[in-house]
Amino acid sequence: MLKSNNSLLENMFSSKEGFKDTFKTFLEIKFGKSVEDSTAIEQYTALGSMIMSYSMHNWKKTRETVRKKNHKMLYYFSLEFLMGRMLSNNLMALGVYGVAKEGLADLNIDINDIEDCEADAGLGNGGLGRLAACFLDSLASLDYPGNGNTIRYKNGLFKQLIVDGKQVEVPDQWLRYGYPWETRKPYRGVEVRFYGNVDIYRDENGDLQFEHKNYESVLAVPYDMPIVGSNTSTTNTLRMWSAEPSDELPGDKPYHEYLQEVEKICLNLYPEDYSEEGKYTRIKQEYFFVCAGLTTILNDHLANYGTLDNLADKVTIQLNDTHPALAVAELMRQLMDDHGYAWANAFDIVKNVFAYTNHTVLSEALEKWPVKYIQTLLPRIYLIIEEIDNQFTTQLRNMGKSEDFIESVRIISGGNIRMAYLSIVGSYSVNGVAGLHTQILIDGIFKNFYEIYPEKFNNKTNGITQRRWFEYSNPELKGLVEKYTKKDLSKNFNNIEKLLDSVDNEKLQKEFLEVKYDKKLALSAYLYKLYGIELDPNSIFDVQAKRLHAYKRQLLNIMYVISLYKEIKRNPNFTMPKTSFIFGAKAAGTYWFAKDVIKLINAVAKKIDEDPQVSKFIKVVFIPNYRVTIAEKLMPAADISEQISTAGKEASGTGNMKFMMNGAVTLGTMDGANVEIHDLVGDDNIVIFGLNEQEVKQLKPNYRPYEYYLNNPVLKEVIDSFVDGTWSNDREAFRDIYNEFMLRNDEYLILADFESYKAAHDKIYGLYQDKSKWAKMCLVNIAKSAYFSSDRTITDYVNDIWHLEKM
Prior knowledge:
By secondary structure, the chain is an alpha/beta fold. Strands 1, 2, 5, 6, 9, 10, 11, 12, 16 and 17 form a 10-stranded mixed beta sheet that branches. Strands 20-19-18-21-22-23 form a 6-stranded parallel beta sheet, with helices on both faces. A 3-stranded antiparallel beta sheet has the order 13-15-14. The longest helix has 30 residues, at 40-69. It is globular and about 95 Å long. The two termini are 40 Å apart.
């Protein structure tokens, strides 16, 4: 006979025996199976259900505490949350991992086999989404009330295959076996309206009224996921919205066509946007999740307070980049059209609810949507944006600003709506994500906005959760650091800096190198099992793992490798420490240049592997389908962290922080958070190369890449190899990369930085030869990494922007 729910919960993780009994019961409840008859997937699902059941009390208690104490709530609106696997993360956060591992072992189940059943949730792509996930972890672990709001993507971004050296995108079927961490709540569904027209009329009081008619409705259904704080009862929520057909069917299109359009909204993260259809889908996504999220926020607020007058006192919404920018206009719409607020009162609330984080200075990421698309898809929203723009420009004229100045900051300009500008005008705070990045915003692309709103601008340097990226993924290193600091880092991570007192200790240095070697062995075994990739753990692991983009300069990295290949072939006396150049990256499906770089990396890798003269010195590895689960094994194993973006282009980076925290030495430019890493560890514990941001600005107007090509024989040989048949029998295979230098003026200054980059490698290889010195450099980086904890970042946001109270 099955036990009662209360008995199950009490015994679930109280002891190894209690765990085993409960696990067996959950297998029986979920699948009608015994342990012996169950599959690994069924065991994973049962354990996930146990964790969810165990977390429910705290999840309920957190919501009730916020409501009873009238706490101010943060809502983090982000199109991405790159969560990674949650099973081990939740077990460790709850403090029951050991009980579960031992109990499963008694049942002849390896917890690692169950962990491997979990797919990485397809809710994000790169640093933007991983930052959002780290922030949720820190909010809960620091006992702050803060929830996430996003889209539940059916097929994620894509699963990356490498076929004949080329990237091939296939659907990421991360939901194939279900997702035990989510709870579907159809009764909290929200109708989201697209298309139609707006009737404008005056009511009996002479006030203007706006009625949205002939719209097409889509039902947004929430799936809630608990965010379990570490060593605390606080359990926040990530709400993921899924699009489903509405009961209000459109009368102007066939039902199957409507179903296809609904399906597309949540099918993929970042659908292509080069076609008109793709642009409409992107805008639908962005409006869909902000409309649904705001509707539930306002409904919950009204249920608790009975008024929206105090919304800005009790709610703050962080816009993570420009994707949620339509929230500014949508909150205006709901306040005015649904709740009867006048324009002035509504806008006073709006501009005190939203805060905006900018993540880039690249024009492609500062979204601009054609007016005609917004007018067609969101007619009421367009009217509101138009009025915000009109009132903003009137305000500027009253301030005496010139027409040129006004045009430079208008929200609607040149037939486009500038989403970053809408975010700035509609927010009370605007922050960059690293010191250099924020200064570039103030001095550059947002200079005129800073003149208008200097009080809004501030910096919040990014951070990462040390729980996932240090404590959970590298417990051996955590144990070593705690041994020498005699501090429990789980309770106060800032104590890691006490490691500085021991960095000259030869025994510690030796033990650190042993931990690093073990992690290299583990990564090598993992990649061999997964992809058949062979790595020599005795080689230097030189790693560049990040989204593939021209400004991140994976091309510079592989060009250096090509120069080594040429030198080895030319010089019989050549020698260097054996190095494995490891790449992990996805390129956007329609970013052809980036996909060519991936093809080049794999072509070089193949050529080197086939040449024993070269392969005894260097190896190139491209890890397919790079994701959080791989990163958790890669970061602890890395020796060198390649952070080589063109100075002034990378907002911050977070990979640099993960590598640093795990004892890799940064080889990088003075860009993004590299600047702050340099300031913390000093010249002796980082290798910096290349032009700085000011030098880039000075060089750009008169840059002549062809002169570098002509005057540097090494560079010329490397560039010529793209079209001389070295890497492909098809001499046109890498013509586009060749043309980047010959015809397109080397936008990201690869040739200008090449010699400095080459010298930086010579320097870092020399440093690596002195094991004691190298270990000390690594240990200093570890010791200074607490600044890059997302706990610090969240504390800064709380103190300066959100003003939340602990639970």
